[in-house]
């Protein structure tokens, strides 16, 4: 049987994959500072009067490179719109995202105007993504795992 050879190949591949995952995790932890960013407030009025607040509850500033806010419209399983976040969000600070067509009082509080992401309605989902695992890396891992029958999926 070829089974012992496949198991050895799988263990070797898993060891390399886990080593890469731990290195990726260490990088993510260093960049995110064990961040707990979350949507602290969501507003939806008539027309384009929509906004969301992203809050940094930590005691340290968070570099936003690698973060994105995503809109999943009408029950979509993949994002229908995405807003890449940049800059730094200070400790205890808010970042407000709204549509450029919002009322002036909402615009006055806004940090980011984005007409793609800030265009939801009551049956849409919003998500804050952090340091996404690139699809090309998933394809490479799956190509390596192909001979062992193991598949790796993005969560």
Structural commentary:
- This protein is an alpha+beta fold and 155 residues long.
- Helix content is 30%, strand content 26%.
- The chain is built from three helices and nine strands, in the order αβββββββαββα.
- The chain has a four-stranded mixed beta sheet. A three-stranded antiparallel beta sheet has the order 5-4-9, with no helix packed on it. It has a two-stranded antiparallel sheet with strand order 3-6.
- The N terminus and C terminus are likely disordered.
Helix content: 25-40%
Question: How many strands?
Answer: 9
Rg over alpha carbons: 20 Å
Query: What does the largest sheet look like?
Result: 4 strands, mixed
**Into which percentage range does the β-strand content fall?**
25-35%
Taken in chain order, the helices and strands follow as HEEEEEEEHEEH
Task: Give the uncertain stretches in residue-range form.
Answer: 1-34, 133-155
Cross-sheet strand order for the largest sheet: 1-2-7-8
Q: What class would the helix/strand composition place it in?
A: alpha+beta
Task: Please tally the helical runs, counting DSSP H or I stretches of 4 or more residues.
Answer: 3
Mean pLDDT reading: 74
The outline comes out as globular
Instruction: State the end-to-end distance.
Output: 34 Å
């Amino acid at each position: 049987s070829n089974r012992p050879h496949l198991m050895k190949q799988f263990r070797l591949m898993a060891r390399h994959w886990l080593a890469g995952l731990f290195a990726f995790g260490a990088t993510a932890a260093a960049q995110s500072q064990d961040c707990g960013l979350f949507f602290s407030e969501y507003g939806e009025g008539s027309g384009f009067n929509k906004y969301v607040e992203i809050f940094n509850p930590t005691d340290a500033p968070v570099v936003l490179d690698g973060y994105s806010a995503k809109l999943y419209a009408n029950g979509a399983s993949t994002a229908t719109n995405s807003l890449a976040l940049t800059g730094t969000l200070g400790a205890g600070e808010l970042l407000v995202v709204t549509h450029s067509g919002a009322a002036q009082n909402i615009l006055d509080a806004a940090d980011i105007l984005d007409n793609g992401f800030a265009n939801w309605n009551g049956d849409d989902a919003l998500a804050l993504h952090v340091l996404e695992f690139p699809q090309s890396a998933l394809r490479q891992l799956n190509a390596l795992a192909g001979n062992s029958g193991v598949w790796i999926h993005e969560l």
